[in-house]
Design goal:
Layout: H1 5-15, H2 18-35, E1 38-42, E2 51-52, E3 55-56, E4 72-79, E5 82-89, H3 97-111
Parallel strand pairs: 1-4
Antiparallel strand pairs: 2-3, 4-5
C-alpha cells in the first residue's frame, strides 16, 4: 500500500517543510536504492505530429536515466497511435534484457495486435 516502501517516502515528503527537503534530500537520495531498484515512467508527448529538420518523426525511443543502485528503468511514450518503450538496465543485474524486451513486446501485442496480425486482416 501507499504507507509502505517508496509510497511512504512520498507521504512523508508532503509533511516536511522546504528547509528539511533542502538539507535532507542528499541523505535520502542515497537511501532510495534501498527502497526500490526499478523506475517506470511515462513521458507524455503532444498529440500533434512532430518533425525534426522538416522530416516527420515516425518513431521514438524514450530513455529513462538509470540511477546508481537501480537495476532497470522503463520509459513509455505514446506517439502516432503507437506506444514506444525504452529499457535501460544494469547488465549485471539484468543480463537478459533482450529476453525481457521480447517478452514485453509479445505481451503488449496480445493487448493490441498489430493491424497486419489482427484477426480478419
Amino acid at each position: 500500500g501507499p504507507f509502505r516502501g517508496a509510497g511512504a517516502v512520498a507521504l512523508l515528503a508532503d509533511q516536511l517543510p522546504p528547509l528539511a527537503h533542502r538539507f535532507g534530500a542528499p541523505f535520502a537520495s542515497g537511501a532510495a536504492r534501498l527502497l526500490f531498484d526499478l523506475l517506470v515512467t511515462q513521458v507524455p508527448l503532444p498529440r500533434s505530429a512532430l518533425s525534426l529538420g522538416g522530416a516527420p518523426l515516425r518513431a521514438l525511443f524514450p530513455m529513462a536515466p538509470l540511477a546508481r543502485g537501480q537495476s532497470l528503468a522503463v520509459a513509455m511514450s505514446p506517439y502516432g497511435g503507437r506506444v514506444h518503450i525504452g529499457l535501460v538496465a544494469d547488465g549485471a543485474a539484468v543480463p537478459d534484457l533482450d529476453a525481457l524486451a521480447a517478452a514485453l513486446t509479445a505481451e503488449l501485442d496480445l493487448l493490441d495486435p498489430p493491424e497486419n496480425d489482427a484477426p480478419g486482416a
